[in-house]
Amino acid sequence: NVDINAANKSGATPFYGSCLNGHFEVAKLLIANNADINAAKNNGITPFYIACHNGHYDVVKLLIVNNADINVATNNGVTPFHAACEKEHFEVIKLL
């Protein structure tokens, strides 16, 4: 059996990687198999944060629909909303 929530040294899980890279179908599959959608890396960056930061609209929407915690800030106090604004991802900002 595979641990779907296994993390690497930096705390990144397979689900985090799918959100980082905007792989909507992979993220959807991992959610269907009980991936921890709020698992943060060691630096406090969550899958939701990184999807907002990278402008992955469909993944952001998927996370919202699946009740991800959208207000968690990184260890440095940066929120997903701040990240989306900084990167000018206007469609993501409208979702938030």
Automatic annotation (TrEMBL):
InterPro entries in the record, alphabetically? Answer: Ankyrin_rpt, Ankyrin_rpt-contain_sf, PP1_regulatory_subunit_27
Task: Give UniProt keywords alphabetically.
Answer: ANK repeat
| Positions of ANK repeats | 10-42, 43-75, 76-96
Q: Does the keyword Transit peptide apply?
A: no
Protein name per Swiss-Prot or TrEMBL: Ankyrin repeat domain containing protein
Q: Which organism is it from?
A: Asbolus verrucosus
